[in-house]
Design brief:
about 270 residues, mainly alpha, CBS-domain, 2 domains, two-stranded antiparallel sheet, 10 helices, about 50% helix, elongated
Length: about 270
């Protein structure tokens, strides 16, 4: 390639994805908060907290103006300290409320939530959203870790399903042709896409002896591969509940196939 060709050729650009997980990726950080005003009666705050099973409510005069928060703790503390009954939210309000920028890292936000129990989020336009609690943080990490575990189960099941069914020559035919130097001594050396290519061919599919619809199974595995690509590129905001459900169903499906094949082999052996 000449210098002129180099200048004429286009550079390959990556998708611009923030490599740092931030608080704004959480659903809770983008919802409109349920709040009360300073002049609202205590009964209103208590009713809202009971109706929605909240431990606290932000005190806001507008969607950009946060004055503090009211909670069961602040109500109890005020009544014990002052030894009197208050009527207004402002009488029991705690002004020490944490409002974080929407681009605060998830790790920094987690630390603040551990200390404060909850935080609010200020969007780019100054609008306040939230609150975000430790429960919201734990849900996000649970979904991310669950998807990793389910994908691991699916790959392990798939390898067991393929084990002992294909020769090295057949495996080599399904490998990426641009990666000719790669040696394959075990099925773990293959990519997920290569597993799919291995069974897409009708004749190779017959070797699995599972007697199921090949097209439907291959279609499902391609869906798993798409989810896997999102997860392995660390995009937790793309992990939806329907994706987790699909992974769970696929793991259970492969487990059932392996179980039936194992039982069939035991019967044949006996």
């Amino acid at each position: 390639m000449t210098i002129e060709d180099t200048y004429m050729d286009e550079f390959v650009i990556a998708d611009i994805v923030d490599p740092v997980p931030r608080i704004c990726m959480l659903g809770a950080a983008n919802r409109e908060p349920l709040s009360v005003k300073r002049d609202d009666c205590i009964e209103k705050a208590i009713t809202h907290m009971l109706l929605h099973d909240y431990s606290q409510l932000p005190v806001m005069q507008s969607n950009r103006d946060v004055k503090g928060y009211i909670s069961w703790k602040s109500i109890g503390r005020s009544r014990i300290t002052e030894n009197t009954v208050f009527e207004k939210v402002q009488d029991c309000m705690d002004k020490n409320i944490e409002v974080l920028s929407y681009n605060t890292t998830l790790f920094d936000a987690t630390q603040r939530i551990l200390e404060k129990e909850f935080i609010l989020v200020k969007q780019v336009d100054g609008v306040i959203s939230g609150p975000v609690t430790l429960h919201d943080i734990s849900e996000q990490f649970r979904d991310l870790s669950e998807s990793f575990l389910l994908l691991g189960m699916i790959e392990n099941h798939l390898r067991q399903l393929l084990s002992g069914r294909f020769t090295k020559t057949e495996v080599k035919e399904c490998m990426d042709p641009s990666d000719e130097e790669r040696e394959v001594s075990n099925l773990t050396d293959l990519s997920f896409g290569e597993y799919i290519r291995l069974i897409e061919d009708p004749e190779r599919w017959k070797k699995l002896q599972v007697y199921l619809d090949r097209v439907s199974v291959v279609k499902r595995l391609h869906e798993v591969r798409n989810i896997r690509n999102h997860v392995m590129h660390f995009r937790p905001d793309n992990i939806k509940q329907e994706d987790l459900l699909l992974l769970k169903e696929t793991a259970a499906f492969l487990q059932q196939i392996l179980s039936k094949r194992t039982n069939s082999n035991l019967v044949t052996a006996s």
